[in-house]
Amino acid sequence: MKKINLLSLLFVGCSTALADNGAAISKLAPYANYSFMRNKELALSEETQDLDIRSVNCANKDLSKYTAEQISFDNGTIFPKDISKLPATFDASVIMEKHKNPGLNIRKLHEQGIDGTGVSMAIIDTKLSPHVEYNDNLVYYQEFLSDNHQNTEGEMHGAAVSSIAVGKTVGVAPKAKLYYFAADLIDGKFENDETKSRTSKYYVAALDKIIEINKTLPDNEKIVAVSVSASPSWSRDPEIWNKSLEKAKQAGIFVSTTRLEQEYGLRDNGVYRLVSSNPDSFESYRQTNWQTGRNIPEEIQKNTLCFPMDHRTTAAPNGINDYVHYANGGWSWMKPFEAGVYVLVKQVKPDITPEEFFKVGLETGYYSEKAKCVIVNPIALIDYIRK
Which residues fall within 8 angstroms of residue 13, CB to CB, at 6 or more apart? Predict the structure, then answer.
């Protein structure tokens, strides 16, 4: 067994697994218990227009005043048997299955063998529980948690981003190897000051570990991308994150955070797809609810590469075969999609850089006035770099 580096030992709650599937799975967190949500009251988010009824008993509730566009649900949601109490044309099973498709014709690339085979990526996010979507991909798991971390269960964020990236049926790169790190952004100090309570040190520990691991891997097995659905640099100690990020760049690792423009000079964004539309059609996508109406200059639109982020079916954290459909995902769900596409591209052209990836992505992408950006076209992108 390899020794844990000294930095890892500084954090209470840190656990490690060797780089083989069985050891990694054995270290994952227990499943989330959503029984507390059973009798949750209905509450529509004003900002996202999302009605979250995951694992809620809605048998005696009236959902007819809502739309299919608004509802997030999972296998544990109990719907009214009276169809008059449901949104018009709402079919939970159809929605759940339809939006397992990553979209943008990515499954056609999988049929060609462009599925992440031979490529490794990492994710830094919340605690992870096992799931059929990504168990076979997981080769490493480690936690960097604060000493006051309370939750012992797997969390929805980790299950979702892992399945979006490498899920066997819902993922962008279903054959890629996954190195996973659970880390905290809050350490519990300065509880009344959000900025001061945020720290990047646990994410730094995870990223430094990724860099360290990469030094031991053969060239054809190195981690090429890290999906981070957060902004570690928005913290009281951004300088240590920036230092670690620079080391990752020098090591040839693309670290995709929600501050990509500040950290790489690359503009990205997410797009919303309608629940009733075809995930593979570019016409299905538009600005998301919380971005609608923003005045974005055309020059910026045409230099912003967009990836799907809403109406996604992903792995759920409360069971090995459980799924959840999210009406709204935000940038959190966009990041693993972006990293997944980068993994597919690295499979075809191992020496491509993030800058070239974005340049070609913008040149081959689909400009959408509805989405106000260039939507990535994975097939056209791959075709271009194979020439």
Answer: 143, 145, 146, 147, 149
Q: What is the mean pLDDT of residues 101-114?
A: 98
Crossing angle between the packed helical segments 378-385 and 331-348, to the nearest 10 degrees: 30
DSSP β-bridge partners for residue 51: 44, 71
Model pLDDT for residues 292-336, shown as the tens digit of each residue:
878 899 999 999 999 999 999 999 999 999 999 999 888 999 999
Residue type, 16: T
Instruction: Tell me the pLDDT tens digit for each residue of 349-387.
Output: 999 999 999 999 999 999 999 999 999 999 999 999 998
| H or E stretch covering 158 | helix 156-166
Query: What is the C-alpha to C-alpha distance for residues 291 and 73, in angstroms, rounded to an integer?
Result: 23
pLDDT 10s digits, 30-61: 999 999 999 999 999 887 889 999 999 999 99
Distance (Å, whole) CA 319 – CA 342: 29
Rounded Cα distance between 373 and 282, Å, is 12
How far apart CA 312 and CA 325 sit, in angstroms, is: 6
Nearest to 358 by CA among 333, 332, 384, 321: 384
Question: What are residue 199's phi and psi, to 5 degrees?
Answer: -135, 145
Closest CA to 63 of 38, 36, 91, 96: 91
Amino acid at 325: H
Q: Is residue 268 within 8 Å of 306, Cβ to Cβ?
A: yes
Token reading at 38:
């059973």
12, HSE (Cβ side, Cα atoms, 13 Å) = 6
Instruction: Tell me how far apart the alpha carbons of residues 36 and 31 are, in angstroms, rounded to a whole number.
Output: 14
